[in-house]
Known about the structure:
Bound molecules: uridine-5'-diphosphate-4-deoxy-4-fluoro-alpha-D-galactose
CATH class of the largest domain: Alpha Beta
Largest sheet: 7 strands, parallel
Number of strands: 14
Strand content: 15-25%
CATH architecture of the largest domain: 3-Layer(aba) Sandwich
Oligomer: single chain
Amino acid sequence: MTVLVTGGAGYIGSHMVLELIDAGESVVVLDNLSTGFRWAVPDEVPLVVGDFGDEALVSKLIAERGISAIIHFAAKIVVPESVSDPLGYYLNNTAKARNLIACAVAGGVKNFIFSSTAAVYGEPQQNPVTESESLKPINPYGRSKWFVEMMLEDTAKATDLRYVVLRYFNVAGADPKGRTGQSTANATHLIKVAVQTALGQRAGMEVFGTDYPTPDGSCLRDYIHVTDLVRAHMDALRHLRTGGDSLTCNAGYQRGFSVLDVIKVVKDVSGRDFPVKLSGRRAGDPAAIVASNARIKSVLNWQPKHDDLPSIVRQALDWERRLHNRKLAG
Length: 330
Ligand code: UFG
């Protein structure tokens, strides 16, 4: 009954591993450490350093470790980078995921949980967006994940594999116990950038676009705490193990904050003012995207516990301080 977590040394994956071992699960991590960290994987959890697209490696792992479920996090996740390097995204996020799914099928792994993204919707016709909205991704990142959703759907029809696709909205915050957090070098995500700026690790930050059709002109997003997100995976795992059907769900709070709102909360919570430059739009950004979470609540019985932006920011700040001290300590 071992769970294979790809990308388990990364931001969301490392929170998942903690949640799984806290629940007494047996876990193996597969991570190539391109953006993840060895220290983010607890000592008692085996870490295999390698590529999730390597069929020989993954097939061996499935057989030798008795893998019964795969939670697939490993991916490239930066929207503007996907615009400048689409083929890199299609190779890593799409082509290699095909290999992983093929190994799951060949190795008899029946339960698969996939990290998809709100970016599959593109610019939704209406917010909160439901899972039945037509998918029109506006960047290669969103498309690279959509292809995997389609592969899973087709594979589930042809084989015994069943899946839960979770479409993540904007993931933020850190483990409330301070064990892990967003540690990626040169991260580009808003809350991370704002927190680093508040702590003086960056001289200032930019707001990308103030002329969007939103209340204050900056982009609107649905920020979900990473711990609530990994709990959604636990709910998904339970759903699959108890015979639930394949399923696609949004993971968000059904509440939007603008970029300017977020910066204000970071300034308030940190008690620090910092320079913010109003700049032009960034490539690939939709104006507004907020999750409908009716399905995940009703089908998976998901109950968010950290739906509070100031707490999300406080934990992100705490983690950033710890990370800084860790670096100073060498
Ligand atoms: N932003 C700034 N300044 C910054 C960083 C970000 O203004 O320094 C803005 C962006 O332009 C965007 C918003 O803050 O309007 C959020 O940007 P992020 O980079 O934090 O996140 P994205 O919305 O681009 O993407 C994230 C995930 C995707 C997911 C998407 C869903 O990376 O997986 O949220 O909304 F699909």
